[in-house]
Amino acid sequence: MYVGEPSKHAPVHQGNALMDKQLLKAATRGSFEESDSTLKETVSRNRSMVLARTTEGNTCLHISSMYGHERFCDAVLELDESLLTLVNSDGETPLLTAIKSGHASLASSLLRRSKKPGLTDSILRPDNNECNALHHAIRGGHKDLALELIKTKPALSEGVNKFNESPMYLALTRDYKDVFEELFAIPGSAHSGSYSYNVLHAAVKCGNTDIATKIMESRPWLAKEKSDSGCTPMQMAVRWDKAEMLRILLEHDCSLGYVANSKNRPQLVSAAYQGHVSVARELLRHCPDAPYCLANGRTCLHEAIEHGHDEFVEFILGAPQLGKLINMRDREGKTALHYAVRKCNPKVVAALLRKGARIDCSMLDQKGDPAIWELSKVMQHAKTLNWVCMFSVYSTVALLFTSHMIFFLSVIELSKLAHAIYYVS
């Protein structure tokens, strides 16, 4: 327990008299004279009065700091500067109270007074949530005060509060680049954030490529740190479609492209899930053999079709290194064509069939069903589509889809499904 800190097991005013009502009124109004013309003289003769507290452990300096009364604060500090070291029931020094109350000018004045021998430790003292003056200055939007605090006490940069937030992380969330630069230059400065994010997560989120480059050059290990949800900065870039940020991360460490998330979901599959083509293109540029498949056999092509991302499907079909995905099966034996037919997406079916001999339309799933049988499971949906299918003479399938009805005749095989499928809008 710091000197001057109230006990956690006793009333905060124990050992100190309760504050005189007239002094409390003066601190609230910011003037001795408005309360009692003789009060200042009385307090000057009996300086123990100035150390008295409210039941919440606040001194007259705390109260005056809440209101931003700089002249009153100066007056009582002339009587006893040890007031700067005393904390209230929230663990706040008057400096913290002034900052949290939004009085940056007063806080700067208190900071200058705290530089004197015997008082400097009060600058570092955090509140009950382990937030120090720098945390509160940044969070409160007081950028100039934050820079002054860093210059006065660089050790404030090492503080991490109960929510695992460092001042550097907060600076990035507020987009205070100059504050970040000052903190980043301090050896040993903390870089953690809430939810187990770090400053690289924050840089990715705000899209600051210059800062991300600095971090990758000096603290590259942050790229592999996971949040509470198992998300690395790399995976965050994929999720939020930040291709330029992805480029920076991969240029510094291309191995990041091969790391799956906590659910063992590869980056390409995540990109396909959200249809982020630019991210997938950048990933393959650095990692041409990047993982593309879940443990259940579902590929990024399956994923893109399932979630209706036609542009991503076209991208995969045009990527040479992903050509083998066309005929790959998931755990249920279903190919991309099974998925496309089930989704009643003639555009994607046509795109797959344009691959000609490379796509095997005769492939059966684990139940022995060809892709066209997927229609029987979604017939109500299919009735709303306008399809015209033309079949090879070798096929015994004849389907006619109109906007009103479906005629579905016996199905034996789906080999060489069609020479053409046209979508009639």
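(the above was protein one; protein two follows)
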Amino acid sequence: MLKLKLMSGVTGLVAVAVSTSAMAGGLERHGYDVDLLFQNSPFYFDGSVTYVMPNRKIKNARDESVPESNPTNLNSLGYSTTADEYENYADPYLGGKAAIGDAIDCMVDYSEPWGANSNPGRHWAGAKDMTEIEVFSRNYGGTCSYKFDAGPGQFRIIGGGFYQEIGGHKEAVVFAPEILPGMGPRSGRISPDTAASAVWTA
């Protein structure tokens, strides 16, 4: 089995009552926000599960790894030129907030901010490049804010941190069974070690 190390990085963020979310090559499923801190109730809980059905199809796929005249070309072997690309997925979120006195609010939450699952299978013309790719993540966050009066409104200082795990795998056909009948399909799998990072933001 081939193994590929997945490097992790640490990023800092300065925020004063502002939250932003970054796109990451279309992999972002759930951005991070601090809305719970601004709930008027001293205790507040929020949870949701969003179910997404991408319904994306691959059409006119070609095996360009070798010429079409080559006996190992998957189009020549009769592999399909169409496939269902993305799997349906659920995007969960769970969070809670508590007030500590009149000036401090704290929240904790769980989310799966990054993810992708493309699974066209082993019987399409692009199977040498990919039969399945999966990326998953688990994020555990904690954030607090300190507020005080400033003119007609309030000023907040927000800080916190999170622990995040990211992992995944990729599979591809390396030997089509039709070339030597009886040998069965041969596929390769790259499984990066799960990367974890802890980040403090203030």
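Reviewer note on protein two: Residues 35-201 form one domain.
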